[in-house]
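ERR on first pass: missing label on line 2. Operator R.T. fixed the label and resubmitted. Corrected input:
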Amino acid sequence: MGAPQERRARSLRERDFLSRYRPRDYPPVAVTVDVVVLTVIDARLCVLLVRRGEPPFLGDLALPGGFVRDESLEAAAVRELAEETGLPSDRVYLAQVQAFGDPARDPRMRVVSIGFVALVRPDLAPMVRAGGDASAARWLEVASARRRKLAFDHRAILDAALEHVRERIERSAVAASLVGATFTIPELRASYALVAGRELDPGNFRRRFRRLLEDRVVEPAPGKRITSSKPASVYRFRRPAA
Amino acid sequence: MGAPQERRARSLRERDFLSRYRPRDYPPVAVTVDVVVLTVIDARLCVLLVRRGEPPFLGDLALPGGFVRDESLEAAAVRELAEETGLPSDRVYLAQVQAFGDPARDPRMRVVSIGFVALVRPDLAPMVRAGGDASAARWLEVASARRRKLAFDHRAILDAALEHVRERIERSAVAASLVGATFTIPELRASYALVAGRELDPGNFRRRFRRLLEDRVVEPAPGKRITSSKPASVYRFRRPAA
DNA sequence: ATAATAGTGTCTATTAGACAATATCCT
DNA sequence: AGGATATTGTCTAATAGACACTATTAT
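pass 2 clean. output:
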């Protein structure tokens, strides 16, 4: 800290450097996006993983992702999502989680990756498997994925994404993307429970749901869901303008 | 969405591309950090801004920031903070906010910037001004900074940083970095109020503070703060192991 | 009828907010 | 003494959690 002026001067030189626009003159960096795609399959929280076909981490499981092209970061994430799942981006919750930039996270060169999290409605999840070939994307239960060895720092990205949705599911309509187009209260409660990682009291959850109903974020849908016991009423999220 | 297989193949080709390590072969990207440095001066929430000395946005105010070198993103932010403020990184709250990567955010080339927020203890803030020269960093009240024209998308970064601390100040000890080494309850309340952007009830705040005391996150400090009326008890945050 | 699950109601504890009342110090 | 502010206390409303209870359907 002895000579802040000199440091500042160096910083200004850098800015000037950039202003001369010789982008090849500094150490190369690549920017990628990695997407933590989550859904619910058979009452299990699952994440979409691909198997790496090249070194490093050849054969390891990894998050779907790729280079950012001439597009925004969000657009890159949407594109990767479409490439890996074939799903359109509407009706998919997608949010930036955090940037990961450890210099050693990729052994080949400096790669800064922007982590995203996406929630896919479970009724659309089967479409994903259908479109995939052998080396392509597959769903893995989150708990087991976290125990596996994942490529790069994808384990950290996965954890950050899970924390992201956990923090937000209580205070937003994030969970809308983890149930089908229509759903019953117990179904929604099951999704919340999967993300929260614990059981939720049916009565208390129903009380919270009543508030969602009053606030017009959900509304009744026609019909009843037939199960092996008492059928439940069906609801749907009201489509906001967005 | 018609041919996901082809898209996936292209994606795999990209990975292979990267594995051959010819980093000059794809469009150049630069990665920078921009730091929203906040403090309290004269009971005003202030942000540290620098004046740009080169185009684009020559003469405009901008957040301090610069290229990420062979270091982690956090390290780059710490370094920029030290360069611009001369302050050591301990006792400064620093957190990543979000990545900003709009293709048009820098007219010269593709620059992805990782936004950080830093909170500087107000008793250290004067040191910053002392070390600065004419073209260097200066404190500006946040409200007025938000009304100004800022370089690049720094207005959006500033807003995101403010939202970040607003969300966290209630549920963490973030505010520890916005009061001096020792402080009174009214002083802490004033900092909270500045960040929250509204008045806080003294009685209710005191009740919350009592919980902080019971949880051992703060502890009494010797002495009293003499003001123009009734003196207040002095406290300090207990230093955690970190 | 019985099992199972949807759905209702109740009790308690915690917390936030509004606000009144008191205590203590400086001038 | 008087003004200002710290400090304490009270009341109410909102919310979460635990849990007992009732209703309705499939089998």
